[in-house]
Here is the input.
Amino acid sequence: MSPRPPSRSRARRASRLILITFLVVFCASGAADTGHAQKRRRQPAPARDETVRVTLLQVNDVYQISPVDKGRRGGLARVAALRKQIAAESPHTLYLLGGDTLAPSVASNIFKGRQMIATWNATGLDIAVLGNHEFDFGDAVLRERMRESKFTWLGSNVFERKTGRIFNGMPPYVVREFEGVKVGFFGLTTTDTAQSSSPGKDIEFRDPCRTARGALSALRARGVRTVVAVTHLTLAEDKRLARCAPGLDAIIGGHEHTVLTSLSGRTPIFKMGSDARNLGRIDLFISKRTRGLVSMDWEIIPVTDETKEDPQAAAVVAEFEKTLSAELDKPVGRTTVRLDARQETSRAQETNLGSYIADAYRQQTGAQVAILNGGSIRSNTTYGPGELSKRDVLSILPFENPVVMVEVTGAQIRAALEHGVSRVREEKEAGMFPQVSGLRFSYDARRPAGRRVTSIQVWTNENENAPLDDKKIYTLAANTYVLGGGDGYTMFQGVKFLITPEEAQVEPAVLMNTISKAGEIAPRTDGRIKRIDE
Here is the structure.
């Protein structure tokens, strides 16, 4: 059954009460920075012949071409069908991606993101901003994927140091014109990409605020009065962007994997979650006389198994899936309990799967303790009870980082845990949150970052614990991403390797072998991480 026309949905009618006529309402009210869009009384809309409607469709952080959540949500062939449906009703429609798509995923480990570009081309994508994971396979692979793209990539703050030019010849901005009205777009990529991915040493990520002000000035000089930033930044960074570059009419964002709507000053910010579970629709009503934004409607359209698929896009997806299925769908074991791989929990609290993976790393290496950054758990869903396939394991841990063992001091372990919980209150779903094995710790998120951990005990055996000794040497199992400073874990520089990357097994192999050896698993949380301010 196809979904109801978006223009008639209850979600759209409700959303009109939230974000309409920003330029009128918020000039009068002086609205403050907020984490959620505030409800406002609906203002009279201008006559249709006085405005041009431009519809923006948005997804972000899409790693899978096929539906997720056991087929219930997402799927780019479904999104393609919705795009065609909406474009038939609103001809001035643009389809935008808020970054992160070439990696990580099971398929990307095999195709290096080629399956994503082929599917985006088939779905009619117009504009994409570079996300941090676009650089996971290095600059050369990214350039190859960009050459294959039939849409425009933006990364206005991503430069090549040697030439001083924007990476791979991307434009600093693009301008689209509809009935004489111009709409400008520029893109911004998080500067953390230098640490969180694998860009070359020649790549420079410049300050988003300075870049945005330059883009706004250039667009204004071209007579553009309506400007949209397509970003791959944290929500806090998007809010700062709205304040430091006044004049933005909307921020179409990414990076976070949950649905977020916010308002910073007069600028609305939209993020639609991950893996195309939702399609954002933002209607801009632009004055034909002033060329400026008059009002705005928005809605969040769930992409479900009731959404029909576009045949052309579905054929592209099917071809790639056929190549994957034979090997990846073989079972490796089973679980008798539900395994929690959701991002909102993996990056905020102890989970049964996080503890199981950390235990697997510790047992595989023989280390005393193990630390796993919650951001390494990627699939953002749950599994079981039931069979677990190779595809499931690779979806959970798509990064093939070696799991090594090193010698560290107790002080370094303490610093790592402090860092891991440093953004619990300030940033939702921070990837550095630690899942652990071989130790127990408690923390108080009300305290200043760097002084939140209140106790740490290291297991002497499974039933006894001893306080962490800052001066003592311990053996630690971790992936090379964390040990190399990923997610801000800079305290491990210069450590002594007992199991080197060349000798180590990669993350999905460690987990797969552990499950296969057990045959049947039933992991549970045991209180090894305790937050005492809740």
